[in-house]
Amino acid sequence: MASAKDIIVKPISSAAAKKVVQKVHYSGKVAAISQLHLGVFLFGKLEGVMQFGPPIDRRKLLPLVSGTKFNDFLELNRMAFSDVLPRNSESRALSIAFKLIKKYYPNIEWIVSFSDATQCGDGVIYRASGFDLTAIRKNSTIKKLADGTIAASHGTSKKDFTGAETLKGFQLRYIYFLKQEARKRLTVPVIPFSRINEMGAGMYKGEKK
In 3-state terms, the chain is what percent helix, strand and coil (to 5)? Predict the structure, then answer.
């Protein structure tokens, strides 16, 4: 039986990453701004993808950690894993990814990522991987359009949001510090994980807890 120790993480092309994200990710949407694509292989077959790149709202996120230079942090834009991968593959893959980023991009101080507890989950993998929870907010951007499709009303979307319904749920923000010195410069409180359920924000695989 395969275990998480059997996975291999290595760079892949954006085209290869796109195929996996479109097939496996709950949204089916690729983050076009991603610059670093890491594939997760099991016995030679690509079964997962992690995409890193600059955040859309980089200037809004910079103040989260004082003294951060413009290009010294990344967003984990997409994380898509097939059900074929063994248990704990996500946390192991993240651990390997962070080691690679530390080695080849030593200027990167921290990684930010968001959990969609409106449609997907509240970030259990992030919590298991050493991320700090720094925000729990009611959803205000993910909407159901008049034609029934789901879209986000921020960023570069050109959708028509007239009459759109805002989906009920939450968005959670997590930060992982590659450099502990940077963690000392965090300008917002670290939120206890217990607050997720206290606020009714718990979700796992699209189901409310």
Answer: 25, 30, 45
